[in-house]
Amino acid sequence: MPELPEVETVRRGLEPAMDGARFAKVDVHRGDLRWPLPKDFKERLQGKTVTGIGRRAKYLLADLSSGDVLLMHLGMSGSFHVFREAGAKKLARYYHEREKHATHDHVVFHMSSGAIVTFNDPRRFGSMKIVPRGKLEDEPLLGRLGPEPLGNAFDAAMLAAACKGKKTSLKAALSDQRVVAGLGNIYVCEALHRALLSPKRIASTIAGKSGAPNERAERLVAGIKAVLNDAIEAGGSSLRDHKRPDGDLGYFQHHFRVYDREGKHCVTPRCPGIVKRIVQNGRSTFYCPVCQK
Ligand SMILES: [Zn+2]
User: Fold this and answer.
1) Which of 44, 55, 58, 216 is catalytic?
2) pLDDT at residue number 39
3) Which among 148, 164, 283, 289 is annotated as catalytic?
4) pLDDT at site 253
5) Burial class, 153, CB count within 10 angstroms (exposed 0-12 / middle 13-18 / buried 19+)
6) Does the annotation count 5 as an active-site position?
């Protein structure tokens, strides 16, 4: 399942293909994604120019010249691929000639830039929606989201205040999109390892009684930002290094410190621990029981 760094990598990959370009033609092969596409989906896109591509948590937001915003979510298995029309000038090295319509290419954007952007989603948990820019604040999908973890506003004080009085585990608190937006199972595990905090620790222990942050909150925020920035950096270099033979954006080789490393040695310097897997709220947690306190 794509998490924030993958979505940010997709955003950066879509930018040269879509930003400043017009939707010349939109093909919908299957409109029944997680929710049905709006009936006027094609009409509201075709002929409109993309004026910017942003991200909020795991949502991609394409601003359109009409004042609408195209909201896109990858769901569990969604992916964007960027190809170029036969004979179109190369926009970036990772664009590939498109061979044929793939089975799960549900939505295809033909851009005036010469790029063909396909949305492929075998499980169809992904979604697209068009919302007027002025109504974005009322959008229920975005309204419930907590702060953006890489935003300047997200700091130890903000995280501690959100965890104040919370008797759930840190793992559960960080997975709650209202506490911090866009973190999933993988990066919660990785951030906790970097902060040397146990995923089982009670969330309220990163705050004092007044809700003021303690040193654990500082470490945790630093861990979250570092792990996300490193992953986005890795995604960026995978875009540059031309590692995607099929034009796929967003999935790249990761080097996790604990995630999916059960039974392996902890990578914390001088720590003799072995990575352990436990189940919390139905999801696997990977952590080092020695250095994560
Ligand atoms: Zn360790």
Assistant:
1) 58
2) 92
3) 283
4) 67
5) exposed
6) no
Which residues does 23 contact at the CB level (< 8 Å), separation at least 6? Answer: 45, 46, 47, 48, 49, 50, 109, 110, 111, 112
Average pLDDT in the 273-286 region? 97
Residue 272 designated active-site: no
What band does 123 get if pLDDT is binned at 50, 70 and 90?
Answer: confident
Strand, coil or helix: what is 114?
coil
Q: What is the pLDDT of residue 36?
A: 92
Q: Are the C-beta atoms of 132 and 70 separated by less than 8 Å?
A: no
Q: Quote the ligand 1 centre to 209 CA distance (angstroms).
A: 29
- Average pLDDT of the residues in 162-189: 95
In the block, residue with structure tokens 């999109």: 177
283 as an active site residue: the answer is yes
Structure tokens at 16: 């040269």
**What spacing in Å lies between the alpha carbon of 188 and ligand 1's midpoint?**
16
CA of 291 from ligand 1 middle (Å) equals 4
